[in-house]
Amino acid sequence: MEDYKNVCEDKPTEPANEVKPAKGKHIAREYLESIVIAVLLAMVIRTFIVQAFKIPSGSMEDTLAIGDHLLVNKFIYGTKIPGLDGRILKIRSPRQGDVIVFEYPEDPTKDFIKRVVGVPGDVVEVKNKRVYVNGKLYANPHEVHKEPDTVPKEYNPRDFKDPVTVPADSYFVMGDNRDRSYDSRFWGFVKMDKIKGLAFIKYWSWDKDKMRPRFNAIGKLID
């Protein structure tokens, strides 16, 4: 018992769990390393996993309102590797009804958001404001019409468009606000390599007219 007591009462000259204060330059280096890691992680997430976008126009009303902030899934259609063609780790291809973000074909510096109406091989036609895919009416529950007039196809293809076949690796897209959307009826198809991802949730929404958040939209899934 005497030996045990002596062993227990021995005090190490330097506690094993003691933490010594770091020198100034070490603290600065640790902060710098943390910042670099955070930036790299943010870049990886933004490039390959998820990216935030803001809705600036009303072409997707009432599904998406001006001031909605969205998160876009960037890996579901496959990950694009800078400098390489194609995509890797693809989960699935875009489907009819998906709301996608893509580079506007006529100006790649701009991002557009629309709903997929036709996939490769589909025949899309617009007759008297109604959309037909492969000869069948495409009745999208999110579709709205806010203009009572009908525009003859001699003026523009908004309400009447002759049948077109969607090419391979391409998609026909339209805004849910059909009368106020500049989309595939006017400028053609979206190539797969221009698609950035699938919009899936609203994480914030600001009503600039009422100067307040739209709390009922925050956290709402996009369908």
TrEMBL record:
Membrane topology listed for this record: Single-pass type II membrane protein
Coiled-coil ranges per UniProt: none
UniProt-recorded Gene Ontology molecular function terms: signal peptidase activity
Name of a matching Pfam family: Peptidase_S26
Domain of life per record: Bacteria
Enzyme class: hydrolase
Keyword Nucleotide-binding in record: no
E.C. no: 3.4.21.89
Residue intervals passing through the bilayer: 31-53
InterPro entries: Pept_S26A_signal_pept_1 (IPR000223), Pept_S26A_signal_pept_1_CS (IPR019758), Pept_S26A_signal_pept_1_Lys-AS (IPR019757), Peptidase_S26 (IPR019533)
Reaction catalysed by this enzyme: Cleavage of hydrophobic, N-terminal signal or leader sequences from secreted and periplasmic proteins
Key words of the record: Hydrolase, Membrane, Protease, Transmembrane, Transmembrane helix
Locations listed in the record: Membrane
Domain Peptidase S26: 29-204
The family this protein is said to belong to: Belongs to the peptidase S26 family.
PANTHER family per UniProt: CHLOROPLAST PROCESSING PEPTIDASE, SIGNAL PEPTIDASE I
Name this protein carries in UniProt: Signal peptidase I
Species per Swiss-Prot/TrEMBL record: Geomonas diazotrophica
